Amino acid sequence: MAPHLPWLLLQFLLLLLGVSSAAQAQVNIALGSSLTPQGPNSSWLSPSGDFAFGFWPMEGNPSLYLLAVWFNKIHEKTVAWYAKGSQDTPVQVPSSSVLQLTADGLLSLRNPSGDEVWSPRVPGAAYARMLDTGDFRLVDADGKAKWETFDVPADTILPTQVLPVGQQDKVLRSRLIPTDYANGRFLLAVQSDGDLVFYPIAEHSTFRYDPYWASNTVGNGSQLVFNETGMVYFTLTNGTQTNITSAEGYPMGDFFHRATLDPDGVFRQYLYPKSRKVRDKWISQWMTVSLIPQDICQRVMVEAGSGACGFNSYCSFDGTQNQTTICRCPEHYKFFDDERKYKGCMPDFEPQSCDLNEEEAAAQFKMTQINDVDWPQSYYYEEYSPTDMTECRRLCMIDCFCATAVFHASTNTCWKKRLPLSNGKMVKNTDRTVHIKVPKSNNSQSQLSIASSKWNKDKKYWILGSSLFFGSSVLVNLLLISILLFGTYCGITITSRKKLQSSQSSGSSILAPKIFTYNELEKATSGFHEVLGSGASGTVYKGQLQDEHVTSIAVKKIKKLQQETEKEFMVEVQTMGQTSHKNLVRLLGLCNEGTDRLLVYEFMTNGSLNEFLFGDARPHWSLRVQVALGVARGLLYLHEECSTQIIHCDIKPQNILLDDNFMAKIADFGLAKPLQANQTQTNTGIRGTRGYVAPEWFKNIRITSKVDVYSFGVILLELVCCRRNVEVEIADEEQAILTYWANDCYRSGRIDLLVEGDDEAIFNIKKAEHFVAVALWCLQEEPTMRPTMHKVAEMLDGAVQIPTPPDPSSYISSLEW
User: Fold this and answer.
1) Is the pTM here over 0.90, yes or no?
2) What is the tens place of the pLDDT at every residue in 340-356?
3) Residue 646 sits in the same domain as residue 711
């Protein structure tokens, strides 16, 4: 038995350590304790660590924090409670604020100026405690709660929590949107008359419209209870219970439970698997298991207000596993704000002028039938009966006030309605048909067509140069390039000068590249003395022009002239001549003299992303975020906004340069692949750099712009982690390939391991996790599963939610973005 003693002793010591750790976790929060938003003391944990109370960083504004309680152990950390101020608005404080449990037992939150911005105003606590139920309490010397978060809920209730009858502060108020904690448009209350009621609320007020759901227990209701078995029910004074939602059968030991009044007005009960054993059977995210009402679109019907969705939109409910409310705009309407769809839709066309006669109105507008959609509560200002559908449509067409005509087949009745339309919803099996007035042609589309044709006219000079270049002598080539550049310059000057001068979105304008002599560039670079970098196609030197601004330049000198380098030179000249964007390096000029081929670019003060990211000092997190967004916007321009779609084919840190303000600019278009107007894919030989090359390059298939998306995904991970994708000398083999290591960390909910030692990234861990999820979407092996750069930019900006990216080890779908 002796040989086993050390092992038994070790187990005993570990047991003691576990007991000690558990005891430490359950120590009461003593008077004088404090929290700050940044640093190690930013939250107090419950004994198990399941919940935390403290400072929660605001999404979209990491310099502000909520005082909140959240689910702490899970991958998808979720706020369950947040403090509200005197105006019932969420308390948001800057990073230098302090929360303190004072010596006299008062919990007080003060801003950097020392002003108290929030407090329960309940002094005399002996200590505080964060419980494993998710309840944070101030406790007196007898162990009784003096104040607790369960007594002042926000939008969520948790198991063991109760909402009693008739207490104004014990109501649930939805958020505006998931990331905006301001009071939303819906409220759940246990009224003093004993009725449990759901109300629509006018935004920025407490005015209640007519209820959209009620328990109808006036005089009999008692309290809303979320019990330990997973049932949410309303108790009656006679002892009976009215079931509201239920997740019975899903044990508390295996699942986290919560019930939330969501921004769309639906009260949903959610589950999240706790253990790895359960996660193997469940997807690792919050799942809706019960909800009320079953279809919010059909329930919210108010005489004033917009309804479930915003004005001029219509509501549909996805009753599948997602259980989501979807707001849509009719044809030729668009959301005021894609993120805040509750604000409704607006026409994307000019309204009908009242000066038009019937013939002119019919020439400009048409009536389009919208199937299975209705705005039944919208006020109608004129009624016709009896009539038929054709006459109903005509009467709306000639009326400049009329936006929609509704025809009721059973009674041959026609109603005309103005904007805004309210309470829009999807309907089935109705004999009411809605016809909406829209323009016959899209004016903005026509303008785009005109602009496109003008560009095609300008572009003919490039096409001419490209088609003749490869079969000509160097002398003829020089002549052609001169004609080409002069033609482009004239075309741009004559047809596009006004547009270029007013263009602000790109931050630059297209200027004709200058023709330099070899001697000029040799003098400017002091005999090609200072090397900035080199690659397969040539070397880049620093120089300075002898102009009035003494402009700093970077001169790319193409290596020994061969057919392939000649081709790369022409591609780069042609490509750069068609682009103008603040996130692309600007081509200032070129030299085509004898066998010498040189390209002259604006000089980037802060060098390449390669030097910036992998140097001795770790760059600030905010700069890394700025670079990621800049590269994304540059690629979006090349793929979707440039007159000719361009695939860069060699996106890597060495080809991303940084200016004085660390603005990222994509460079080196020698391997770029411009596409024809009717092309989305192309055949070409393998291009790119090891570690950044998309898998399809090796499969002998046609490539698309998704190869750049893949490369961007690699760079995005490198920006998050400040390390190269491939590091063969790293101690832990599992971490050698960053793309694999990042996927493992994301799947296990341990992004903190990925950014270990990076205090700024850990402080912005939600943002880091956000970026890693985007990167993993970009790195999908199947190109069609990768998002477009437009979608990538939206996800990085936080404009759209990011679904969980598929695990590369289990591809089961071909989702197209």
Assistant:
1) no
2) 999 999 999 988 988 88
3) yes
